[in-house]
Amino acid sequence: MDLRVCFENMESVNVNDAAMMKHYTKSYLADFDPEWAGFIMLPHNETMRATMEPAWQVLIRDATPRTEQELLRYLDENPMAAYHVHVYRRDGGTNESKVH
Fold first, then answer.
1. What is the CA 21 to chain-centroid distance, rounded?
2. What is the predicted pLDDT for the residue at 51?
3. Handedness of CA 8, 9, 11, 17 (dihedral sign)
């Protein structure tokens, strides 16, 4: 499975520097070997702020169910400052399902 981890900024945060955010997200998720994937527009009904602002994203390719559970536990125990984190899972097909 592949996991897409998206970072929706909180209202008081505005980061427009992709290089800085790439470093921040890759450091935050270093144990999961994330692949930088730029930004994505999330449906506003799936975000905390209900805006159509882009969210930064990384991919975790070929994740196992154990990796997914470890990631979700890590996110709950270590929230990223100033960001809402969303996780989507893709199991071989083209559609993703939101898991966090």
1. 12
2. 75
3. negative
